[in-house]
Prior knowledge:
Blueprint: H1 3-19, E1 29-35, E2 40-45, H2 53-63, H3 69-88, E3 91-92, E4 101-103, E5 110-112, E6 119-120
Antiparallel strand pairs: 1-2, 3-6, 4-5
Amino acid sequence: MDLFDLEQENALNEVRILASISDPHIIGYKETFYDDEEKCLCIVMEYADGGDLLKKIQKYKRLGEYLPEPLIWKYFTHMLKGLQTLHKMNILHRDIKCANIFLNANGELAQLGDLNVSKVLKTHLART
């Protein structure tokens, strides 16, 4: 399997997983379409008007400040709730990082996103 086939398989995997999930702590899936002109699969997701957690951390770092501890706990709790939903569905995220945690504009909601390399488990054991 070449790199293109693997990327295609990962994209289709993400679409299947996202379309099956409805949870406030996981970024929402809207639709998928194929752009013939660009020859690419386009996945339309819920808009995260607050950007991602990496950009928020970088902003605070530039200001020489720390994120408020209650906000850190709130984001951590939201991430755990999203993971709980995935794990109940036997899905491993496999790419949790600040750039894949999306925020709303007022910074009150954190959502897991980018399920590109996620894996649906057929048993309770994972081999990755």
